Queue: 2 jobs
Job 1
Amino acid sequence: MNQIDKTTHWQNIDQQHHMHPFTDTADLNARGTRIITKAQGVYIEDSHGKRYIDGMAGLWCVNVGYGRKELADVASRQMMELPYYNNFFQCANAPAIELSQVLADITPDGLNHVFYANSGSEANDTVVRMVRQYWKLKGQPDRSHIISRHNAYHGSTIAGASLGGMAGMHSQGGPMLPNVAHIMQPYWFGEGGDHTPDEFGLIAARALEDKILELGADKVGAFIGEPIQGAGGVIIPPATYWPEIQRICDKYDILLVVDEVICGFGRTGNWFGSDTFDIKPDLMPMAKGMSSGYLPISAVMVGDRVADVLINQCGEFTHGFTYSGHPVCAAVALENIRIIRDEKLVERVRDDIGPYLRKKLASLADHPLVGAVESVGLIAGMPLVSDKKTRKGFEKPGTVGTICRDFCVEHGVIMRACGDRMVMSPPLVISHSEIDEIVEKATAAFDATARKIGKM
Ligand SMILES: *Cc1c(COP(=O)(O)O)cnc(C)c1O
C-alpha cells in the first residue's frame, strides 16, 4: 500500500472502531483523522509525511522532546529485567523506590512521601480519598467538602470531572461527586472588569473565604487549584492571588492541594509551579511531564502533616492501582528527571528560552485579533478578541479559536484553542530558531484567521 492508501485504510478502521477522547465522533468522521506516525525533537509527522512543529509538547507533557533514545533504552532494559511487579503485599521494586527519593528531593520542602498512580485523573481521585480519610482520622469527618474553581481542569474520571470546573463535563455522565463546590477563577483578562489585576486577584481569592464561611469552616477539607490553569486556557493568576489563597487556607486549617500535572517538571521555569508562585501544598498531584509522556505514570506528593496521619493512624489505607509504581514507568520517569537535571532544562526555561519565547510573542501583541500575550516560562496564552481596548470577545465563544487552531495546523504549527484563547506549551528543549518558526507560523495563521472573519 502507498501512503495515501494506508492513510485511507487507517482512517476507515478508525472511523469504524475507535472512539476518541473529548471528540465529537460524527464530526471527526466527516473530517477524517490526522494520523501521527512519528516524531523527533520538537516535530511530529503525519501519515502523508507532513511535518508540524509541536507548540504543545503533545498534550503539555513531552518536556524533554521526542525521540530520546535514553528513555527507550531504559524502558527496554527494565522490561527485560522486571517488566512488572506490584507494590502490594509487602513488595516493592527498585525504580519505584529510587523515584520516590528523587521526587522528595526535587519537590518543595515538607513533601516527603509519594503515592503512585497512572494518570493525572487517578492522582486526583487519590487526592479526594486522602483528604476525606485524613479528616476522618482527625475526628472531623464532616470536613468532606472540597472547593475548586470554575474552568479548572483536574481530569476526566468522575472525581476529576467533579473537581474540575468545566460546565461541558458536568453536564455529561452525572451526577457528579457530592460535596464539591466551585468558586470564581482568577481570570483578570476575561472577568476582571475595571479592577486592576492585583485588586482582582484578591477578589478572586477572597471568594474562597466566602465559600468557606457559606459551607461552614468545619465542613471544608481542602481547596484544589492549578498554579496556572492549563486546559482552562493558560490562566495566569495575578501576583496577589496565591498568597491570599495560602493565607485563607492557613487561617481555616484547610488542606491546600496544588495540581501540578501541567506546571510540574520545569514548565514554569522552576521544578514546580508551587516554587514559582511560592505555594506550600499539603498534597501535590502530578503527571504529564513526570515521564515526558513516554509512559503513563502519575503521583501524589503527600505533605508531612497528611502523611503522618495516613501512615500512623490509618491502618491499611484501602486504595491503590495494579500499576501503582510500575517498574518500567518509574524507570522512565527517573531517567526523564535525570535528563531534565543534567541538561539543566529548568534553568534553561527560567533564564533563556522562557524569556526568549516571551520576547518573540510580544510581536503578536499588536495583532488585530490578539487581546494580550501572557506567559510564564514555556507556557503561554493569547486571548483572541473582537475589541482589543475593551477586551471584548466574540459573539459565539470558541468559534474563532477553532478557526485559528485549524489555520495553525494548516500552516504546520500545533497550537491549541481553549475557547478563544490560543495556548502554547512547547517541549523544554526547543531552540531559539524553533521558537522563531512557531511564532512565524502562528502569525501567518492569526493573519489568515483575521482575514477570514473580516478583521484584516
Ligand atoms: C491533564 C490534566 C489532568 C488529568 O490528567 P490525565 O493524565 O489526563 O488523567 C489533571 N490535572 C491537570 C491540571 C491536567 O492538566
Job 2
Amino acid sequence: MSRGIETKCLHLEEDEGCSSNYGAVSYPIYQTATYAHLGVGKSTGYDYSRLQNPTRKHLEKVVASLENGLDALAFASGMAAITLMMELFHPGDHLIVDADLYGGTIRLFHNVSEKNGITFSSIDCYREDVESYINENTRAIYIETPTNPMMHVTDIEALGKITKKHNLLLIVDNTFLSPYFQNPLDFGADIVVHSGTKYLGGHNDTLAGFLVTNREDISEKFRFLIKTTGAGLAPFDSWLILRGIKTLGIRMERSQQNAAAIANWLKEQNAVTKVIYPGLPTHPGYEIMKKQARGFGAMITFQVKTREFALAILEKVRMIKFAESLGGVETLITYPTTQTHGDVPEEIREKNGITDSTLRLSVGIENVKDLLDELDNVFREIEGELHG
Ligand SMILES: *Cc1c(COP(=O)(O)O)cnc(C)c1O
C-alpha cells in the first residue's frame, strides 16, 4: 500500500535500513565534481556530477515519489527546468499555452522559443474551446492551475482526454499547489513542472526547479538533455531542498489555514474590490479544485480600489515583505505589474486582468493574528491618510 504524502516527504522506502551512508538520517551532501573508476569499464554508477550526483539523485527520487512519477530531474531553477523541457520541440512545432502564466515563462516562450521557430497560441485554457486551436503542428498544451497570478483553474482530467485523443503532451506547472495538494500526473498530465524555489524549498533561500514525468521515453530524453546542457541542481542546493521537503506537509497546511483567514478578511474590506482565492466557494474553479486537488493553497490575488492604495500597502508593510517569489514560510506581497509580470507586454497584462491595483499575497506560516493585525493597521493608516 502506498504511504501518505507526509511520510513520503521524509522517507524514501527503497533507501530504508541503515546499510548505506553509515546510517546517516540526513542524506549526505556529496560535494564532488567527479568519481574515480574501479577499473576500465567499471563505474560506481556515478561518473561526473553534470550527469548525476548522489545527493541530487536522492532528491529526484523523493520528488518523483511525491508526484507519483516515474522519474524527476532537479535543475538550478524553475526556468532552467522549463528551458530544458522546451528542447523536446523542434522548429515548426506549435504549442497551446495558458495566456495567464508566470511572467518568466511568458518571457521564455516569446523571446527564446519563438526565435527557435516554435509558435504559440496563448489562450484561456480554463474557459476556451482548446480543441479548436489544435493544428497538424501542435505538439503540446502547457498550463498552470491555478494560474499565476489570476488563479484560473483548469480541469486537468478534461484537458488530458483532449491531449490523449490528439497525441499531444499535457504539461502542467504545479508550483502553486505543490505535490502536497495536487498531482497532475494522476489526472492525465505527461510532464509536471515545479519551481522548487517555492513550496518545495519553502524557506525563500534556494533556487531550484523540477521536471517530473511518468513516461519512459520522455525521461530518457530529459536525461540526455540534462547531461548535454548542464543545468542540474548542485549538491548543496539539492540538500537544502531535501531539507525543505521534510516539512512540506505542515507548512502547506498552516499557510493554507492562514490564507483562508486572510481571504475572508480581505473580502470584508471596503478598499478591496476583488479577492481571488480558489478556496472561496464563490471562485469559479472551486468545484474543479475539490475534484483534482486536496487543498486550495495559500496564494491570494486581490484588487484594491486605486493604484495609490496598492502602492501605499507596498510602502507600509513591515513584517509582511514586499518581495517577488512565493511559497516560503515568510509572507510576501508582490506587485505583478512591475515584478513577476513586469516584462509581459502591457496589452497582454491588461487582457489577463492584471492591473496597477492588483496585488498578490503568498501567505506564510506566521501566527495568523499577527498577519491580520499588520494588514489591519496598514489599511487603517492608508484610509486615514487618504481621507485626512
Ligand atoms: C517562480 C515560478 C517559476 C520559475 O521558477 P524559478 O525557480 O524562479 O526559476 C515558474 N513557474 C511558476 C508558477 C513560478 O511561480
